[in-house]
Amino acid sequence: MTGAIPKQDWMDVPAIFREGNFCYPAKKSIVEYHKFPNPREWSPDQDDWKLPEGWEDIILKGLKERLDKFRSLKLFMDICVRCGACADKCHFFLGTGDPKNMPVLRAELLRSVYRNDFTTAGKLLGKMAGGRPMTIGVLKEWFMYAYQCTECRRCSVFCPYGIDTAEVTMMLRELLHLVGVGTNWILEPAANSNRTGNHMGLQPHTFKDNIGYLCDDIETITGVKITPTFNRKGAEILFITPSADVFAEPGIYTAMGYLLLFEHLGLDYTWSTYASEGGNFGLFTSNEMMKKLNAKQYAEAKRLGVKWILGGECGHMWRVLHQYMDTMNGPADFLEVPKSPITNTVFDNAASTKMIHISEFTADLIKNNKLKIDPTRNAHRIPTWHDSCNTARGMGLMDEPRYILDNVVPKWYEMPENTIREKTFCCGSGTGLNTGEIMELRMRSGLPRANAVKHVEEKFGVNTLACVCAIDRATLSALMDYWNPNVKVCGLSELVGNSLIMDGEKERETDLRFEPLVGMEG
Amino acid sequence: MRVLYPFIAVLALIVVAFLGGKVTGLQYLLGVVLPYLAFGVFIVGFVNRVIQWAKSPVPFRIPTTCGQAKSLSWIKQDRLDCPHNKLEVAARMFLEIVLFRSLFRNTKAEIHDGPKLVYGSSKFLWLFALLFHYSFLVIVLRHLRLFTEPIPFFVPLIELADGILQIGAPRLYQTDMIFLAALAFLFLRRVMLRQIRYISLPADYFPLFLIFAIGVTGLLMRYYYRVDIAAVKMITAGLASFSPTLPEGIHPIFFIHVTLVCTLMIYFPFSKLMHMGGVFLSPTRNMSNNNRVVRHINPWNDPAIKPHSYAAYEDEFREFMKGADIPVEKE
Ligand code: SF4
Ligand code: SF4
Fold first, then answer.
1. Strands B116-121 and B107-112: what pairing?
2. A96 CA from centroid of ligand 1 (Å)
3. Mutation choice for ligand 1 from A10, A76, A83, CB with most ligand atoms inside 8 A
4. Cross-strand pairs, B120
5. Cis peptide before A37 (omega within 30 of 0)
6. Can you tell me the distance from the alpha carbon of A316 to that of B133, in angstroms, rounded to the nearest whole number?
7. How high is the pLDDT of residue B124?
8. Which residues of chain A register pLDDT less than 70?
């Protein structure tokens, strides 16, 4: 199914854009909103990209600046030996067969320009030393392959020098923004997050209403009435989750899980409409944007006077939190080191950022016997576990979710060893690639993940794919519909919520999706 | 072309050195001037490159976490693959540098009909890379005999172990054979595997040919031409003590060998061979994953970047918020 490797030198194979293989460019108004350069109407499949005068120099200057700012970039430009250990590790390469999706070659797209303009050998020997000048063809290639990388870091695990192509991709995207080349599906949500607080663009009352509907459903299913608070000053904990959880299936079931869990505990917490987005579209844009969006979470925690922040199930949110938050927007000295009010466990591993992951929180509760759980309520689910790239390879969160699964479902199964934990495969649509116009690409790049799921589906009858990431919940659903239609996607907290025995609940006949429980099929 | 040009380049070097080695005047250039020059370029270039890297900051803490992080007390941390402190990082780096741990993880993925992905273990690259680097190291250490007086104690030990099979006279060193075999593997891998061939540059073939030629000329000198070792030692010891001498009648193969080695040293700092220095500096491997515990400082962090303020947010949505009973700051 994968294409053959072209006969020509890779430098001579141009990137060809046709409807369906590129993300739509950012709308003029959105680029203007961000005050990014060169707002205009344009399309990648037209020859003329309407670049500004002297764009080559803008790019080279931008590259110089970034080489001086990031040791990772400089080093990764110099030390790759092209051993190819990373080549067949990328889901985009495995799914498309396009050799430029080998991580090493993706980086070479930038390296060739770097060599030509910034190294002695390249200046002297040019193409013989693997250098090439910055041309429009190169730029087009960059755009194509910077948006066929989900910055998942799988390649980095296998590289003998830890070269992280995700770092290179981030730089490519930043450079492209300098000349007004960006995608709408990233920049518009980033604009929404900035203005309304969340990428969906939900205004405060809508955000609250949506959670209200979820509470109504919970009452119908369990008989328990929940009334969460919003923007409440003096709450102990601020809870932040990706906004997709309060808006779209199957994330909303995860949100119902959070609501049930917090009610079960009687937790003193609040939602915020101002900081109503965990996911950070800045990670896919530029580090300045990332900082700006992330800063809201801190600002809101300060304004509300909470003690610490609890974060919901989200991949990129946690990558940003774990790797960047403290550096960009710390120190969070107005907060306290998170301490579970239920178990009194102090989360020293978040001593500085003061924010903990819902899986850490829940695992601790289960370990200390603070939850009344009936795992048989999930008997109709036979899950497997999808490690999200960001939580696995960006923070090392692997065993907490597994411990929770052990306790909230009767039985679950691991996918093959090469596809889990730090070797996990991306959903294929992270970093702002979960847009409809590139559906074929998404289904292809998600193939490695889908294949591993198929394996356990056939072997163990797995029918559920559980994860802790909102993008996963959205993109894996589409992926499963295509490759393994019998498998449904859910968040971990949905399974937790479904298994909780709430005080004063009625006899439950359905799960949170209104699907009948085993023995209650009627 | 990507293979041919580097091959021609190495051949040209050999021819030049061969011819030069026959002319007395040029012998001095190849046997004395060039080695000093090459050594100087190597040291200065290497150090300079490392300084250049070190000058760029590491703004963010970005370790690749290849195992469970330190979290709740009862969850077992993977201390080697997700180090939390400096000691654990040192252990991770040690295994990385000494045993090529990441490469050991290597797998092979192939798409079969179905479509179905099949994974296999693939440790050949790891094995041959390890063999190559270690035999290279042993060979370099063995050469110390030529440059030192007295000879460090470990050199004879290495020689003894290396020649333990006692084949031939002078005794055959196993590392010489392993070295050439590993090089041949690395080369064949590059030309035979279509993916690897596609990504390979002249800059990947050149050092392979060069090092191979160095190995072969070395072998020829030792086993075939039996170059006068006493004379060679006179030159090398002279170089090392900054009182170079050049005895008469040295076989031209010696000059070829020396020229190739010098070329390698000069080429080194400007090429991918700098991975030797870079591997120590890789931020994804040499940082501890205590991101949420200890604050990491970015020297160019811009404090002027502020979030869209709450006040502006409330101004825009105040009426809606009041209507939905969400608390506001200003009425
Ligand atoms: S594994 Fe690392 S060194 Fe090898 S080709 Fe890939 S990026 Fe380069
Ligand atoms: S970061 Fe992920 S998507 Fe990007 S090149 Fe590496 S493996 Fe491929």
1. antiparallel
2. 20
3. A83
4. B108
5. no
6. 39
7. 93
8. 1-3, 521-522
Q: How many CB atoms lie within 10 A of CB B28?
A: 14
Alpha-carbon distance values, B47 to A68, B2, B266 (Å) = 18, 30, 13
Among the listed residues A149, A140, A165, the one whose alpha carbon sits nearest the alpha carbon of residue A76: A165
Atom of ligand 2 nearest to the CA of A426: 2
Q: Are the C-beta atoms of residues A186 and A285 closer than 8 Å to each other?
A: yes
Judged by CB atoms closer than 8 Å, whether chains meet at A70 and B323 is answered as: no
- The DSSP secondary structure of B270-307, one letter per residue, reads GSGGGHHHHTTT-HHHHS-S-TTTS----TT--TT--P
pLDDT, residue A3, reads: 58
- Could you give the CA distance from residue A455 to residue A418 in angstroms, rounded to a whole number? 12
Using the atom order of ligand 1, give the atom closest to the CA of residue A159. Answer: 1
Q: Which residue has the tokens 């009948």?
A: A516
Q: Are A319 and A151 in contact (CB under 8 A)?
A: no
What's the per-residue H, E or C state across A393-446? HHHCCCHHHHHHHHHHCCCCECCCHHHCHHHCCCCCCCCCCCCHHHHHHHHHHC
Going by C-alpha positions, the residue among A164, A208, A176 that lies closest to residue A72 is A164
Q: Which residues contact B275 (CB under 8 A, 6 or more apart)?
A: A79, A80, A81, A161
Element (H, E) at B110: strand B107-112
The complex's ipTM?
0.93
Give the per-residue pLDDT at B114: 80
Give yes or no for a contact between B47 and B282, defined as CB atoms under 8 angstroms apart.
no
Closest CA to A213 of B175, A205, A140, B15: A205
The answer to whether the Cβ–Cβ distance between B324 and A205 falls below 8 Å is: yes
Q: Which residues 129-168 of A are in CB contact (within 8 Å) with B? A: 129-130, 153, 156-164, 167
Mode of pairing for the β-strands spanning A488-491 and B107-112: unpaired
How far, in Å, CA of B308 to CA of B328, rounded? 17
Per the rule left: phi > 0, alpha: psi between -120 and 50, beta: everything else, A50 is left
Of A63, A66, A79, which to mutate for an interface test with B (greatest number of B Cβ within 10 Å)? A79
Determine contact: A213 vs chain B, CB below 8 A.
Answer: no
Q: Which residues in chain B land under pLDDT 70?
A: none
In angstroms, the separation between the Cα of residue A502 and the nearest Cα of chain B is 26
- Please tell me the residue having the least CA distance from ligand 2 atom 8: A90
Bridge partners, residue B119, by sequence: B109
CA A450 centroid distance within chain: 17
> Tokens 């890779």 identify what position?
A10
Tokens 């021819």, located at residue = B15
| Amino acid (one-letter) located at A65 | E
CA of A209 to the centre of ligand 2 (A): 38
Residue A307 and residue A233 in contact, taking contact as beta carbons nearer than 8 Å: no
* Residues in contact with A449: Cβ distance below 8 Å, sequence separation at least 6, in sequence order: A91, A386, A419, A425, A426, A427, A428, A476, A479
A310 has which bridge partners?
A: A239, A356
Distance B96 CA to ligand 1 centre (A): 14
Partners of A466 in beta bridges: A385, A490
**Cα(A202) to centroid of ligand 1, in Å?**
43
How buried is residue B51: exposed, middle or buried, by Cβ count under 10 Å (0-12/13-18/19+)? exposed
| Chain A contact present for B174, CB below 8 A | no
Q: How many CB atoms lie within 10 A of CB A352?
A: 21
pLDDT at A522: 60
User: How far is CA B158 from each of CA B99, B155, B217, B324, rounded to the nearest angstrom?
Assistant: 20, 5, 21, 81
